[in-house]
Design goal:
This protein is of the alpha/beta class and about 260 residues long. The protein has two domains: about 200 residues, 2-enoyl-CoA Hydratase, Chain A, domain 1 (Alpha-Beta Complex), CATH 3.90.226.10; about 45 residues, Lyase 2-enoyl-coa Hydratase, Chain  A, domain 2. The protein is about 50% helix and about 15% strand. The protein has eleven helices and nine strands. The radius of gyration is 19 Å and the shape is globular. The chain binds 3-methylmercaptopropionate-CoA (MMPA-CoA) (1HE). 3-methylmercaptopropionate-CoA (MMPA-CoA) (1HE) binds next to helix 2 and strand 5.
């Protein structure tokens, strides 16, 4: 069964329906994330069909995402604010620590909660129209969707502090330079590139992808000695899979692809 939410489109792509294409579809509000949309993201990532091996997240219209729907903010007291932030954490945790790698296709505004969503994805592809900001700082609020944990991992706490203190906006080129995106592509081509990368990711052994998503960020937070041990355990489990053995055999017997110069 494929999920069906009013502001979130869901499509399966690829000959084996191995790519989930998830589109924020509220362009008149610049894909601002209201509670319904955040819950739709959570439920969609929690219930990806078994055929799916990689996902792409994008936004319809001129912008990827304008962040939190500010029209819902004015109604909240502290207790409701806490629960609201925890809802975002639950949803974006499903993106970051779910079953399959997620590629974000970015264009236009990637701001506030939009940047928090993008930073929960594993690969970010930005087109030349992309710009990044954290207007929370100037709106008298704070990040609440996991940005204070995830964004410093990409660009460092100093750059995030600067963005929030001064309202600094990064363009697409500078965004790639500092690590907000891993890819920078011509305007209008981010989705094609993201789908191409997702197709490549989907052809990896699922256990290797899972290890990359789940072991790497945890190892980064462990003391080195624990990290080496976690790595050894993960490496042993992944290489034991029949698919890993078959892929190595394919290479040794001349059937596997060689690494080509980039
Ligand atoms: C919105 C939102 C929104 C647009 N909440 N309604 N995020 C921000 O502070 C960013 C606020 N948005 C903007 O700066 C601009 O809208 C954009 C740069 C993203 C796009 O500009 P533009 O000229 O293409 O669109 P627009 O004319 O500003 O907006 C079109 C409509 O979308 C308009 O509504 P309309 O009824 O007058 O047509 C806007 O009000 C509406 N709209 N953005 C609600 N964000 C988990 S905590 C996360 C905390 C945050 O994310 S704070 C940062 C919030």
């Amino acid at each position: 069964m494929t999920p069906n939410f009013p502001d979130l489109s869901f499509e399966l792509r690829g000959d084996q329906q191995q790519i989930a294409l998830i589109t924020l579809n509220r362009p008149t509000k610049r894909n601002a994330l209201n509670d319904g949309l955040v819950m739709a993201l959570r439920d969609t990532f929690q219930n990806l069909p078994a055929s799916v091996r990689a996902a792409v997240v994008t936004g319809s219209g001129e912008h990827f995402c304008a962040g939190l729907d500010l029209s819902e903010l004015k109604e909240r007291d502290a207790g409701a604010g806490l629960q609201h932030s925890r809802l975002w954490h639950a949803a974006l945790n499903e993106v970051e620590r779910g079953r399959v790698p997620v590629v974000a296709a970015l264009h236009g505004a990637v701001v506030g909660g939009g940047l928090e969503l993008a930073s929960s994805c594993h690969v970010r592809v930005a087109d030349a129209s992309t710009f990044y900001a954290l207007p929370e700082g100037t709106r008298g609020i704070f990040v609440g969707g996991g940005g204070s944990v995830r964004i410093p991992r990409l660009i460092g706490a100093a750059r995030m502090t600067d963005m929030m203190l001064t309202g600094r906006v990064y363009n697409a080129e500078d965004g790639e330079r500092v690590g907000l995106s891993q890819y920078l592509v011509p305007q209008g081509t981010a989705l094609d590139k993201a789908l191409e990368l997702a197709t490549r990711i989907a052809s990896n052994a699922p256990l290797t992808n899972y290890a990359l998503m789940h072991a790497l960020p945890r190892i980064a937070e462990q003391p080195a000695d624990h990290g080496f041990f976690t790595e050894a355990l993960m490496s042993a489990i992944v290489q034991d899979a029949p698919e890993a053995k078959a892929r190595v055999r394919d290479f040794l017997e001349g059937r596997g692809a060689k690494v080509k110069k980039g």
